[in-house]
Amino acid sequence: MNFTDIVQKRRSIRKFTETQVTDDELHTILRAALMSPTGHSQRGWQFIVVKDRQVLTELAKCKTMGGDFIATAPVAIVVAYDANATDVWVEDASIAAVTMQYQATELGLGSCWSQIRLRNNADGTSASDVIKTLLQLPDNWEVECVIAIGHPAVERKLQDEEKLAWAQVKNI
Ligand SMILES: Cc1cc2nc3c(=O)[nH]c(=O)nc-3n(C[C@H](O)[C@H](O)[C@H](O)COP(=O)(O)O)c2cc1C
């Protein structure tokens, strides 16, 4: 699959089969993240690979809604950053996260982003703090998102060429 096809094929997948993601596949996905661009080449991201079912279940509960699918994924990657290291950590972490999603697509895997930054759990605690406590991460780290990855249990249509928002592109 070339990149033109990968960008059309990538869709958010929230249902996974029980087939595991192999260590080789995970290595390829993390390799892509570690090659992603960062401001001032800071490379301050931290990736925590979670396969433990109990921890995945806790991650799914770290915010009130929108993260349930993490509980049933074979693996999830917590994308964290030393927020003191750079003023563009949100961008650096996001670029790494989406790069992993495109790499997962190329491998025939599905993935979905669960937003953590700016999200809270039911009692108002920030989802990032919930995860930092759960995984015993340093205070100065912030969590941008969790990327759940697995073999798709649903088939999703390709991005619809006819529905692209070309009106939002201006030529000057
Ligand atoms: C910044 C960002 C935050 C997102 N947060 C969530 C989330 O918390 N839960 C979720 O189910 N999907 C989340 N998504 C996935 C979007 O819902 C999805 O990309 C969008 O609906 C378009 O669908 P597609 O990915 O299949 O093209 C997020 C995506 C991005 C880029």
Summarize, please:
It is built from five helices and four strands; from the N terminus they run H-H-E-H-E-H-E-H-E.
Structure description:
The protein has 172 residues and is an alpha+beta fold. The chain has helices at residues 3-9, 23-34, 53-60, 89-106, 127-135; strands at 45-50, 75-82, 110-115, 141-150. α1 (3-9) packs across α4 (89-106) and α2 packs antiparallel against α4. The mean pLDDT is 97.
Please describe the topology of this protein.
Blueprint: H1 3-9, H2 23-34, E1 45-50, H3 53-60, E2 75-82, H4 89-106, E3 110-115, H5 127-135, E4 141-150
Antiparallel strand pairs: 1-2, 2-4, 3-4
Bound molecules: flavin mononucleotide.
**Radius of gyration computed on alpha carbons:** 16 Å
Unreliable residue runs: none
The count of DSSP E runs of length 2 or more, i.e. the number of strands, is 4
The helix content, as a percent range, equals 25-40%
Q: How do the strands line up in the largest sheet?
A: 1-2-4-3
Key features?
5 helices, NADH Oxidase, binds flavin mononucleotide, four-stranded antiparallel β-sheet, alpha+beta, 17% strand, 4 strands, globular
